[in-house]
Hints:
The chain is mainly beta. It has a five-stranded antiparallel sheet with strand order 9-10-12-15-14, covered by helices on one side. The chain has a five-stranded mixed sheet with strand order 19-26-25-21-23, with no helix packed on it. A four-stranded antiparallel sheet has the order 1-3-6-5, with no helix packed on it. The longest helix is centred in the first third of the chain and has 16 residues.
Amino acid sequence: MSLKTISAGILLVLTSIAAAGQGIWLEQKHDFGAFDENLGTVYCNFRLVNAGNEPIAIVNARANCGCTRPEFSREPIAPGDTAIIRVGFDPSGRPGRFIKYVNVDLDSEPLRSSLSIQGTVIGSSNTLKSRFPVSVGPMKLRSTIITYGKIYRDHTGGQYLEGYNASSDTLRPVVKNKPPYINVIMQPAEVPPGDRFVISTIIHGNKIKDWGIVTDSMTVSPAIDSDKSVKVETVAIVSEDFSKLSTKDRENAPIIDTDVTALDLRRISRTDNTVRQSFTISNKGKSPLIIRRIHCPEKAVDVKLKDTKIKAGKSAKVEVSVDPSLIGDTELLNARINIIANDPDHPSTMVRVVAEVK
């Protein structure tokens, strides 16, 4: 198609809408492509032609992000004249692909128009270190831990981990050895150079066997055949949902009680034999107390409970043994025994094990 034909077409469009007094954009999208963050603020122009018979004006232009700044004049645009909106994008601290919008209001038709800019910022070394401090070959990650917070047994939860392709080639990150109760989606599956990606995860509470704090891990690699990888830890607190209990259910609920809040072993030596203590869990409620889980994260402390279902008005003994040789390099043992139960008012109870280590 010749330049003369194109010009004639534009003229025909302008002439056809002239009577309506409308403005017409010669462009509404701009792609900066890939550029270095160190280049600083980049600019582009959007041209608006007054195709009407009366002057029009740009009333306002607002961006959807503080990193994007439109510049324009509110002076009237005479019929047939062209106005320019200059849009600047500041890439500082924003590595990866972006798309931003500017809404423009006119005092004539169209009253509201949307302009867009897009591109890919190649992050500087300082930005990548602060935003994606974990390096795995050409792949960078925001963190090596995914925390889900409280997850009810019959519910699901979601969380994500951001990553960045710091190479000049397309990456295809993969997740291996994930827990069976977590589903993972890589978005996008193929990551262009200088672009960000997201490891989206969904955790299923009904597929987790344990209660309370549950830790696990998965392995993330920049490619399926890569010899580089990093372990990403996962942490969730699996809880029972008591929100649907009626007032009567709560009145008849079990009530957990322990005869001590701490076991004080006083002074022990790393050369001592295993130290044994015990405490009692009682049910002061009206229905059976079920101990969902009782455990201690301190490897030197072992906990055993024979009866995990305690009838109303009854008690059960918890046997605690401490192996001094397994206590780490510390002068004070301060371990926590966590008890997860079906008491709606006290679903988690803690008994400490303390000692001075010599």
